[in-house]
Every structure is written in C-alpha cells, then in structure tokens.
UniProtKB/TrEMBL annotation:
Organism: Microbacterium azadirachtae
Aldehyde dehydrogenase domain: residues covered: 16-458
Keywords, comma-separated and alphabetical: Oxidoreductase
Record Gene3D superfamilies: Aldehyde Dehydrogenase, Chain A, domain 1 (3.40.605.10), Aldehyde Dehydrogenase, Chain A, domain 2 (3.40.309.10)
Protein name: Phenylacetaldehyde dehydrogenase
Length: 460
C-alpha cells in the first residue's frame, strides 16, 4: 500500500486514472473557491512568521524536505508514474530534491550600490507575501518544486493549484513539505478550472508563477491585472533545431532524438521542429527513424521502457490530428504515424514526419507528444528565418561540427535559451525563461530568487 497516496486520496473525490492502464489510481479532493479563500487567508497569516525565521533557518528546513523527498522517492514516484505516465517517476522526485537543495544554498546577499564615506546605499530583497503556484501535468513534482522552492527560500508562503490531470502527486508532495514546515506555509488546493481562475485573480496573492500553455497564460495575465500581482510565466514552446551542413550524423543522433522525445515529447522545451540541411537531410531522417523504432514503449511501471503514453485524451487527440493533417498534406510518415493500441488507449507510436514545410499544422503548432517533423532547407539564413517565424520563443538548438559557427547562428535565434549540439538540458544554477509568447520572467539560480522577492533600497 502506498501510504502517501492513501494520505491524499479521498473516497468521495474525483477519480484519477493511470495514464497507461486507465485504471483508477485514487480520488482527488475537489475543493471550492471558499476553500481557496480560507487557504490564502491562512497563508497570509503564516507568512510574517515564516519570513522572520531568516534565510539560514529556512534553508535548513528546505534541506530536511529534500532529504525526505529522496527517502520517499520510490513511493512518490509511483504516483507520478501512474498519473503522468512517466517512465522514471522516482527520478523526477530525486531531481526535485536536487533543485530544492540548490535553492536553499544559492546566495543572495544585499548589494551595496554606493559607499562614498558620507553615505551608504544598499539594495535588499524582501518577501512578497503569498505566492500562487499553478502547475502543469507533464512534470508535476519537479515543476512544483521549481515554483515553491525559491518562493519559500525568500520568505514567502505558497498556495499551489495542481493540474486537474495530476493532482495526487502534487498533494503528496505538499504533504511531505508540511511535515517540516510551520502550519499553512505550503498548501495545495485541488479543484477545477474555476479554482485556478480564482487563485489568479485573488487580491491576497502577491505573485503568480505559472507553467503551461500560452492561451492559459494570457488568461492569467488578464485575471491578475486588477491587483497587479507579479508574474513569472513559462508558456508554450515550439522549439526549433537547426542542423548545419557538415554535421556528423552519428555523433549527434542520440542527443537529437532524446531532445525531441524526452518524456515522450511532453516537455515545454523539447525539440518540436527540426530544420536540416540538404546535405545531411536523408541521413538525419533515417537515424531518427531508427531510434524511434528501437525505443521501447510501454507503461512506466516497467522501467525497461523508454517511452510512455500521452498523458490525457485531449492531448492524444491533438497528436493524432497533427499527424493526420501532415499525412493529408503529403508529409511522409517515415515511421509511426498511428496509435499503439495494443499497449493502451493513450499510446502513440514514436513518429518521424519528413517532407513537410512551414504552414503545416505539425510544424506551426506545438505537438507535445511523440512526434517530430523534419524540414529540409538549403540556406542557413532561410532556416533562421523559418525558425524565428513563430510567436513562441522558449528554446532552440543549433547542431554542427564547428562550435563557433553554431554559436553565431544561435545568436540570431529568438529564444530564451539556445543549446549547441544538445537540446533541453536545464540546471538549477542557470536562469531559464522564454521570450515572445513563451512568457516572461526567469527561474533558477540567483535570478530565480530575485523573482520571488521585492526590492528595498536603504540609504543611510
């Protein structure tokens, strides 16, 4: 029996289904807006005492929570694997513990702006109040920790609204946090979209951190406008990769494939569009197809698998629609292109689509699933133009034999992060955020701490 799951599942709650088997995992509480109001009031009352503990004590407690996450990684990971379909749920939990320690240990000291003998001016970073975390379903534990670790470190309290698709893992995460924190410092409220909308618009919220789609991000901006809550938004990404001429296909093929298909393609910053020079196009397509056909697919409960299900029926329908539209437009389905119904209702075969162009839905829209369109180009300037020809600007990558040449191309791409000969790697000490309609604000490292604080200038 999974004790963590038992502690958060309620008999009269909403059924949550296993992404792979569609069997019931547990039942999530369905909280009301009135419940949310009470949680925010309690968080506001708890915040001054939490801030008064100081950085050293808050960091000590965050380390205790990280240790507890590691100790319960298998237990919490089972819930993540069931709800989300992830192959290595425990790995996500261990990663969250690592991020938590990094937030605890990152230094952010007051900055001396001027000291001339007659006066001294300092810039301090102080808590904001209550931070709202509205999370996605693709990395429910990891991204929740991305939100709440820096918020807590800086002396804020947090109210979390998990995705309706993966609430149990976030509720279980909050349970582990609560074991080590004063009452009401962290609260998770599971409910419908009405609860999420109320959280974004609530006058008691000082800061909103949201990871999810661009349309939802726009609604959060609108909802938060009347109370001027600060925002960090990590929104959709239709990340482009450019493979330059002269690239050694065998040297990059594995990294290229997993840059697109990590977590079965359900990653905001995964590679979603690949522009490949004529000279290596056929070889790249063949190498990607070979890896797609070889990657074991199945339930995440079997750790020998590498690819899992699409998490929910709505996303499965999007993936199916985009592939069928590409097929109708004359795109070449090199491999995949159909559901893997023998594995379960939400499995879709790893799919490589060649001979498509910009303007096709599968290129212009974010697939967020196990599908990669490969687009041929002959001129690097044209590839850069096409890569930039979207409203998204989260990540991008450039692949080639000359690092300086690749870096020069990277400078021309409109994206918050551009990787060279890799795609999608993030680090808790390196700031991450998007441009254009992929959001604004930075997470991770010192910049992530600053984003969870107000500034105060003291002159004396």
């Amino acid at each position: 029996m999974n004790a963590l799951l038992t502690s958060v599942s309620v008999p009269d709650g909403r059924p949550i289904l296993d992404a792979a088997t569609r069997a019931e995992v547990g039942r999530a509480p369905v909280r009301s807006v009135a419940d949310l109001d009470r949680a925010i009031d309690a968080a506001r009352a708890a915040q001054p005492g939490w801030a008064a503990l100081g950085h050293a004590e808050r960091s000590r407690l965050l380390h205790l929570i990280a240790d507890d996450l590691d100790a319960h990684a298998e237990e919490l990971g089972e819930i993540v694997t069931a709800e989300q379909g992830k192959i290595d749920g425990a790995g996500e939990v261990h990663g969250a513990a690592h991020w938590l320690r990094a937030a605890a240990d990152t230094a952010l000291d007051p900055q001396v702006l001027r000291e001339d003998g007659a006066s001294r001016t300092e810039l301090h970073y102080v808590p904001l109040g209550v931070v709202a975390s509205i999370g996605p379903w693709n990395f429910p534990v990891m991204i929740s920790v991305w939100h709440i670790a820096p918020a807590l470190r800086m002396g804020n309290t947090v109210v979390m609204k998990p995705s309706e698709n993966t609430p149990l893992s976030v509720l279980a995460l909050a349970e582990i946090f609560r074991r080590h924190l004063p009452a009401d410092v962290v609260t998770a409220i599971s409910g419908d979209r009405g609860v999420g909308a109320a959280l974004a618009a609530h006058p008691g919220i000082a800061k909103i951190v949201f990871t999810g789609s661009t349309p939802t991000g726009r609604r959060i901006v609108e909802s938060s406008a009347h109370n001027l809550a600060r925002l960090t938004l990590e929104l959709g990404g239709n990340d482009a990769g450019i493979v330059l001429p002269g690239t050694d296909v065998s040297a990059i093929a594995d990294r290229l494939f997993w840059g697109a298909f990590m977590n079965t393609g359900q990653v905001c910053a995964a590679l979603k569009r690949l522009y490949v020079h004529d000279s290596v196009y056929d070889d790249i397509v063949a190498a990607l197809a070979e890896r797609a056909e070889a990657a074991p697919m199945g339930s995440g409960h079997d750790k020998s698998n590498r690819l899992g299900p699409v998490q929910n029926p709505a996303q499965f329908d999007i993936v199916t629609r985009l592939v069928e539209d590409a097929r109708a437009r004359g795109g070449r389905i090199v491999t995949g292109g159909e559901p893997a119904a023998e594995l379960g209702p939400l499995f879709y075969r790893a799919t490589i689509v060649a001979d498509v162009e910009d303007g096709a839905a599968i290129v212009d829209e974010e697939q967020f699933g196990p599908v990669l369109p490969v687009v041929r180009y002959s001129d690097v300037d044209d590839a850069v133009r096409r890569a930039n020809g979207t409203e998204q600007g989260l990540g991008a990558s450039v692949w080639g034999p000359d690092a300086d040449e690749a870096a020069a191309v990277a400078q021309r791409l409109d994206a918050g992060t551009v990787w060279i000969n890799q795609h999608g790697g993030v680090d808790p000490s390196i700031p991450f955020g998007g441009t254009k309609a992929s959001g604004y604000g930075l997470e991770f490292g010192v910049e992530g701490l600053k984003a969870m604080a107000a500034t105060k200038v003291i002159r004396r």
